Amino acid sequence: MKIAIASGKGGTGKTTLSANLAHYAAQTKNITLVDLDVEEPNNNIFIQGNEIEKLDVFRPVPEWNKDACILCGKCTKWCKFSALLQLIDEILVLPELCHSCYACSELCPVNALPMQDWPLGVYNHIKEGNLDFFYSKLNIGVEQAVPLIAKTLKNIEELELDKELEIWDSPPGTSCSMLEVVKNADFVILVSEPTPFGLFDLTLAVESVRHINKPVGIVVNRYGIGNDEIFKYCEKEGLPIWATIPNKREIAVLYSKGELIYPHIPEFRAELDKILDNIEKIRGEQ
Amino acid sequence: MKEIVIISGKGGTGKTSVAAALATLVKNQAVVADCDVDAPDLHLVLSPTIKKREDFYSGVKAVIHTDKCTHCNLCKEKCRFDAIEIVEGEYRVIPLECEGCGYCSYICPVETIELVDEKVGECYISETHYGSPMVHSQLGIGADNSGKLVAKVKKEAKQLATEKGIEYVIVDGSPGIGCPVIASLSGADYVVFVTEPTLSGLSDLKRVWELTNKFQIPAGCIINKADLNQEVNNLIEEFLQAEGIDRLATINYDTDFQSAITNGISLIEHDRTKWGKVFSEIWNKIN
Questions:
Q1: Same domain, B141 and B248
Q2: Global confidence as pTM
């Protein structure tokens, strides 16, 4: 079962929850943790282990072959992403704008745009006990996170690991990179906080997740700050609250040092138990 | 005109609180632009009245008109995004998967695939509760092209500033280092990082600084929740010094941030004496 942990608003505790939940569950189960916040991955601060694999990840983009090109300019008209520019006597390729659709390369009448690998980022596989941990890091300056997310998930799928639970830490927001994660999951946990910012972004995230018909559970983090509007909203919308994590300075301090929370704070561990119970329940229903 | 962009790498460090505080400090000297287009929160503090609403189109999506379709399967075969499915014998585009590359429409032998302009979201030109112009937006559900919407919001904000003779544009950016952040940075004059003394915050700050550096934009940093971890705070200070990033302010953990957000007001409006001083100093250092 694949569970995506997403949020809408950034900084609500996705990584704290993902790393702790995965590490805790891996004490008794076979677990995969995947950090798909490829722009700013941080699970690797909390999870250590042995490196199994480290790979550069590439994406195909066209490379201009000067000798073959007849400068007909058709490729620049086909490209919807402005990734090809025709200058006086050359075709300029802008790889960061390319979406790897192959149209220019395959339609070019003289095969002057063969596809070549272009680096996107780095993929890592770490193992600690029962936990297989994966994270990918987008190269600085690369605009599109989605291809790296897709490649990471594909690599993991090909490993055919036998896992009871896969926990996917999603990027913040509600746009394409978040959806790329959520649409491939079986269930989505949305982490929010009881402030107007947390609530507003949660409503956007709920809309996005419902748009693609994924079931949702809510975790309210930093309970104690703000107000109770988030609870009213969840009740009205029929969204189950799976856990409520208190706002505690101790949790923030442990997080700041890159330490897991659950070994130190029983109250926090109890909330993880609730989440795992809920996961068991929906697994039974499936 | 000077464009000041507020980003952080990591989410939840206080970007929007800082943007709102600066905006309510300088009031009519700045146009405010919310460029966190897929999780915009600035309107919850500046309570804008929408004056002008505009649909924003960017890119295309393919649509198959099945009446002429000969089921040759070429479109499905060539699509690299697995965006074409067969439902009850008819070929259909899955909108969420379609990248809008147009390849299927170019190769369709009976020309029955149309490329339709995609509405990515809405862009709003508004007036804040204190009377200054604000530009914000709402990205459509499942829409990509968030970078294009960011560029649109920034363009409108700059145009307003020019028309009204306003000196500054304050941009509230999004977390991460990808396309919306790159679009926020493009053309900016000064970048304000808001970070926190956690190992995650520091790691994310380093990555977003590396990106900012490619644009050669001068930058400053506000360390928020500074008393959370003295050791990491020192690491951040060392990093700022080594990289030549201005240290704009060190702010200890303060429940005023949550109280102000909960009441839908800025820190300045929450406590002018206390926060007016802090943000005036920041503003002076930026300029």
A1: yes
A2: 0.96
